[in-house]
Amino acid sequence: MEFPEPPPLSPVEPTAATHAAIPFSVRLGCLLAWLGVCLCFLLLQRETAFRAFFCPARGGCEAVLGSRYAELRGIPLAWFGAAFYLTLLGLWLAVSAISSQRVRLWLLDGIRSMVLIGLTFSVGLMYIQFWLLHAFCPLCTASVLIVAASLVVARRARWMLAAKPAGASPAGSVTLALFAIFPALILVAGVLVKQRPVGGIQMIDLSTAHREGPTDARVQIAVYSDFQCVFCRQLVPVLQQLRTAFPQEVAIVFRHFPLESHPRAFAAAVAAECASEQGAFWEYHDKLFLEGGDLNEATLVAVASSLGLDQQRFMMCLQSEEPRRVVEANLREAMQLGLPGAPAVFINGRRIEGPLTFENLAKQIQALLRAPDSQPGNR
Predict the structure, then answer these.
(1) Neighbours of 80 (CB within 10 A)
(2) Coil, strand or helix at 201
(3) Which CATH architecture has domain 210-370?
(4) What is the CATH number assigned to the segment(s) 17-192?
(5) Do 249 and 219 meet the contact criterion of CB atoms below 8 Å apart?
(6) Which residues contact 360 (CB under 8 A, 6 or more apart)?
(7) CA torsion through residues 79, 85, 89, 94, sign
(8) HEC per residue, 259-299
(9) pTM of the entire predicted model
(10) What is the pLDDT of residues 173-214, one digit of tens each?
(11) Domain ranges, ordered by start, for the chain
């Protein structure tokens, strides 16, 4: 059986439907922006297991996120980062949904300029992180890598769309936009997986800790500290000022928390325990924080010598196991408490949030002293 030949096809004007599909680089740009939003919301979660997974307690996240550089006029930089990535995500979705070639190229030019500014700012933050704070925050560093990758992807996407127009994909943009709700889930989940118990009171064993002040003081300030930590060193004069302001009401209790990111912190803690063996813990504590630097063994011995300690006894102690066991027990306690970093300060068992300034701490101490039924969370 023969079939009649079909009529010849009439020429069709090229439309958006005949254009190539949206380049992969556009979708990749959406993904990078989405990852950036997720990352910023993780940075805003101080007490969640999510952030602790990426920023372990013995890492350098807290040194970076707790520094004065982590805020701008009292607003955490992570909020600015979240706004940056959400704007970027919106622009990428617009590139995917809009069919106008001219508008698309204009949007991509805007994305490139925006990302270039963001990358410049991020490089400055990396300088502060590594050269000023001497710390490493994995999430902060990942944000810089995302911004750098976004610049490459934006340049690629513009080149491809300029060379070969592509059709719009409004449905695909809506689908991608729905994934933007997941960063919000991080905030919700962060509230549900707090590491601290309800009420915020921790029972801390202070019986074996180093104490400065009356044992029956109504306010017990437990400090988990690291001798190589810049912020721990800045806290020392604040604590001394509190002892002067509240001589009978406040006691300072010291616990070792040497961070893994500080290679000489553990050895310095052991040396402080050896000084304690000769009754000079607080004198050694103060001089060691004044030293700063890498705290090599020669420095640890020199500080002991300057305090008139028995050198032979001190050197033998450095080689013994007992001071190491004390420091390791302190470290295990800090890890069990889920501390994100040093310094960590507890007042009557409640961990203090916010800036560790004299004004902030004194205000909380005064509130406790005015409350006759306040119960210390220590034993």
Answers:
(1) 15
(2) strand
(3) 3-Layer(aba) Sandwich (3.40)
(4) 1.20.1440.130
(5) yes
(6) 352, 354
(7) positive
(8) CCCCCCHHHHHHHHHHHHHCCCHHHHHHHHHHHCCCCCHHH
(9) 0.54
(10) 555 555 556 655 555 555 444 444 434 555 566 666 889 988
(11) 17-192, 210-370
